[in-house]
Amino acid sequence: MINRWLFTQIDNSALIIFRVFFGFLITAESFGAILTGWVKRTLVDPQFTFNFIGLDFLQPLPGNGMYFYFALMGILGIMIMIGFKYRWSMIGYTILWAGVYYMQKASYNNHYYLLLLLCILMSTLPAGNYFSIDVKRNPALRKIAMPRWCLLIIIVQLWIVYTYASVAKLYPDWLDYTVAKNLMASRANYPIVGELLQQHWIHICITYFGILFDLLIIPLLLWRRTRVAAFCISIFFHLFNSIVFQIGIFPYMSLAFSVFFFSKERMHHLFMRKKEFYNAQEVIVPSYKRFLIPAFVIWFVIQLGLPLRHWVIPGDVLWTEEGHKLSWRMMLRGRSGYTNFYIIDKNDPDAKRTRVDKNKYLSKKQLRLVSTKPDAMWQFAQRLKEEYKTKGKDISIFVKSKVSINGKKQKVLIDPEADLANVEWNYFTTNPWVIKYPEK
User: 0.90 exceeded by the pTM?
Assistant: First the structure.
């Protein structure tokens, strides 16, 4: 049964089409990051970046190095699109994108995480076996079919992402329209639609449409009778997100996923009429089966488990941020506040607390990060500790921080008596100096 489910050969038109779309979009993402100034603001201008904790060796290349880095990613994207050295191009892009993703958190985005997962999956899929330079150079690579697991792994991954995104919205600030109202308030100056977005009925629609779309879109696309209607709704939903939230290539990537849900015959007819259509449905059990199934299990156990880890960490993840990343908790809250860092020279008995001028070290984006996120506060304290260590000083660093979630009353986030220069970061559990249950 499992052999028939995973290894039945099906027409590969959808995967080939998606490879072309995917290559085009990641090319646009790479060159667009340069042209829009994202690379400059995020990776070139700052003195350092807030990498994922434990990956301190990941820092931007000096000088104009990051422009060349992204240009190389753009070139690899083109190679993926046209199917030239597909496997190596895809692996190369995956490594470079992983470097960018783990290198900085000032522009953290769940969509960037999804792109990383897709890059990993696309590196394993036979997406270069048709309509590619590789096949033109070596006709022996040409295939018109693929095993069914290549389709299933994409669909299951998307189902996990959308389902968790829907369930995460079932909390008070989303259900009472606070989040939608706050999101739209910052877009009041948009031409034509800005005033409309401030209407209460729009906030109601955004709130419930967001929950229902994420929860139902995958089942509706899978069911033949609702597929076309679901696709039309997807076009509206993703174009709305693209225009209003300006979130890069993700809305268009989401639309490109639709090729995996429509019938193989339709995708072949629309995009690849010159290609032979495969419908033999042979079951070919490959030699790699003994590796594939355990890899599937491990991959999806991780994908299902990571978004749940905040349930075993004390405190509310919306407040503490512990367990927020890699959890598909998208656009759920707005954080604002302030944080002041104070240094004391431990070797000077008469030393007084000296306030740190954060503007000397941080960009505007990084200032917002350090003002609201405990992990960034700890990392900044560690940076300061290392700087003073080079001057021969052993220091303590204390933080006064108040944070507001979704425009509510500011509350103390960090224990003001905790010395952040001399505490360890707990990777897999809570950090005791983050106040879990602030006073009301």
Answer: yes
